[in-house]
Design goal:
Structural class of chain A: mainly alpha
Helix content of chain A: over 70%
Number of strands of chain B: 16
Order of helices and strands of chain A: HHHHH
Helix content of chain B: 40-55%
Number of domains of chain A: 1
CATH class of chain A: Mainly Alpha
CATH class of the largest domain in chain B: Alpha Beta
CATH topology of chain A: Four Helix Bundle (Hemerythrin (Met), subunit A)
Number of helices of chain B: 19
CATH superfamily of the largest domain in chain B: P-loop containing nucleotide triphosphate hydrolases
CATH superfamily of chain A: HPT domain
Distance between the termini of chain A: 25 Å
Largest sheet of chain B: 5 strands, parallel
Largest sheet of chain A: none
Oligomer: heterodimer
CATH topology of the largest domain in chain B: Rossmann fold
Chain lengths: 113, 458
Amino acid sequence: MKLVLDLTFIKSICDEDPKFINEVLETFLIEMPKDIAQMNQAVEEQDIVMLGRMAHKTKSSLQTLGLFELKELALKIEQLTKTVPADLAVFSLSEQFIKHMAGVYPNAKKLIR
Amino acid sequence: MKLPTTEGIRIFIVEDDLLFAKTIRYILTLNPDHEVHVFKTGKECLNNLHLNPHIVSLDYSLPDITGDEVLKRIKTHDPDIGVIILSGQQDVATAVELLQKGADDYLTKDETNKERLFNIVEKLKKSIFLQKEVETLKEELTEKYQFSESMKGNSPAMQKVFKLLEKAAKSNITVSVTGETGTGKELVAKSVHYNSTRRKGNFVAINVSAIPKDLLESELFGYEKGAFTGAATRKQGKFELANNGTLFLDEIGEMDLHLQAKLLRALQEREVTRIGGNETVKFDARIIVATHRNLSELVGKGLFREDLYYRLLGLPIHLPPLRERRNDALILAKHFLNMTAKENKLGTMKLGQTAKDKLLSYSYPGNIRELKAIIELGAIMCAGKTIQKDDLQFNSLKKATNFFLEEMTLREYNIKIVRHYLEKNDNHIPIVAKILGIGKTTVYRMLKEDEEYPLRNT
């Protein structure tokens, strides 16, 4: 799983404006742990709806920061939460996802100038 | 929607992913004319609709309210707010569904880039400014067609017309306008429309006598693609175009009997069927008809359907010819002079006494249209700021003789009368003598005395 951020998209939008890039990274480092905490809680409480909601929410940030493999994983989790009956594999996938995300933060911090 | 007074555009971003919201905000605020607000929930967005956004970028999947519901409530608040749906690639089907429910465009988050987002926003802005232009023009038209602005006249006959116009504007009744050519029948129709509750709808006019019979049917009812040779695409008819507005059928007396039957059916059923089609299309339009002919006489001659006549009669408004309200000619002349002077940047102009006398003595066979043309030309021809009688040229095509236009001697008047009757009777002197109750020799003598046209052709 690739845990290194690819800022090509963000850089293309802001013409490599370091101020905006820092703002995006800082927002990621503040907001994403909150979402992951909620996801963790959803796993503990076997709350499929919340799990799906949080997986959906994280996708656009992951796409924006070039974390494409993680985004695909989030998409898979979201889709599994919608199957009837619920596919219990979603919980183990979510745990994996949460674990991977923990490895992303240090990489994000390194990119802040 | 409160339309932007300047180029400023207020945009709402409704997005629960703050990072993505900031990215979109960054792109949109690259244009300093954009005032961007970010809301994390649907509820926050709905609570702030009083700020009157012009465009809303809406994430279809929000934590509190579905995108479907937010879209519905935005459009209920103001159907003119442009809504862009943002969704993931895999959710395009949902986005398309929202497009069908009134969203204006959509963008997948995977392909969000500066150009795409800007293009969509610019497209919506164009539509907003176009709408602003249309509304401004409609407001201008409404002002232009205020009864006090559009219709002039103090005569009792016109005062009666004004009262009827007000009644017509306040109701939804069919209006039938009669009057000679040039009395302002279309102006009456427009004034009724722009003073009525239908003014936001279209005013659609069609002159029955100006369109070939074969084409009139397709103009009125529209046609389907392939209905006939040359029908390359579907075309809406005037009834459909006038939906929620007013349909003005000018010179209705010229409509042939076959089409009268179709018109009657359309008016009875309040629906039309396009030529070559099966589907009926409902319409809700006020009908105003006009004619310079006497419709009841046409009914008597079998040229106009009686049932259609009664259906169209509604509120009859008769416009008196200008010769029956000569004093109004001066009021109208001053009005047209002000308009012409303004349009041609001629400064303040006025009518001299000799011009007023000349205007009052004329019979205006072409009615107000003719008076307007006379004044417009007079204003242009005038050397100074005051129009005199020589600046006014009466070039009526109708040979209505007015003997008081110019001061003449009694002898000259007599000769003019004789000439008039000779012209009317193929220069047949015995007949003219009989009509005038004078001897043939008197006619000959008068013609000999005519210096301008000495005895000739007689």
